[in-house]
Queue: 2 jobs
Job 1
Amino acid sequence: MRFHTRKWVKPEDLNPNGSLFGGQLLAWIDEEVALYTVIQLENSKVVTKYMSEINFMSSARQGDIVEIGILVTKFGKSSIALKCEARNKMTRETIITIDNIVMVNLGPDGKPAPHGKVEVEFVKDRLKDY
């Protein structure tokens, strides 16, 4: 799993218990997975179709640094399936895991469209001819 994004837990991210609000963490994850998918599929029109069971394993507090990791598990015809983990950057303690997130590639008409991808590509490899 590659950890791409780091988020600093700020006062506005906290719930009444003084820990990271789960909805905020899920918003960060949804955005990170969407950005990752846009880059992988080379299409800015993608949507979240499905998130499996969400397992909160620990919490984060103000000042903690949360990092979000993503692993592609499958390429479908018009979709991509991913696994996600968010953890405390300093302690490496897992905060949340999501075993299956499905993102769908959309065509100009807003309907699912084939993306033609079969494996993870890195932008640096796409640019080596330049």
Job 2
Amino acid sequence: MVKNKKPKVAIVSLTSCEGCQFALLDLGEKFLDFVGQIEMVDFRLIEDEEDAGGELDLVLVEGNPVTEENIKTLYALRKRSKLLVALGNCAAMGGIPEIKNYQEGANTIKHVYKYIHGINNPEIKELDNFVKVDFVFPGCPISGEEFLKYMPELLAGKIPVIPDQPVCIECKAAGNRCLLLDKKPCFGPMIQGGCNAVCPTSRMTCQGCRGLRPNGNVKAMRSALKNMVSDHEFENITEIFGLRDDIEDRERIK
């Protein structure tokens, strides 16, 4: 009897802090059990051998395609893999690095390097500006438990659907007092849930690292925050995790 082959999976870093991959390692034995169910072709944090190439059933990509080498790697991974998944906020929304796009753009580099000649300084773009992205694990970092929840579907070649519910649902379930009642500008009502409201539970406002809900009401959110923050402050908060582009697109459509 021929045994079923294990699905071939790669977890790849572009330009990133690799925090989402460490979130996986933080799962401990649960992650090791998962790895035992697949053939891990590439995962820099634990690999012993270089990726030899070949077809992949699934590739998860963390980080921004900033360098030319990053972009070449991304194109190659897309060609090799049946499904390509964005792993975390940077890959999906541009993340914290995208702040420079909203501010001084190319001139931002002058605040970092004394001599900028020959230093490549491209605009920060999400993965889907370059290749088709089949699914997104949102968050900064991702939720390890959410990873384990949806991976079986992805390994079966199916695209999971994350329920359209706000962070507020999980915040209420945790017994938290709503930060909006204390005049703190929390984006929870318009942001995709699934993080167990980790920030509001720590009395930190939700700043939208998981992105807009499909039916998130940006207009209502702006109205609710009108007496808490100025329009300029609202924009600054939306820039932290790359949310501003998505909001502008949503408002343009509306």
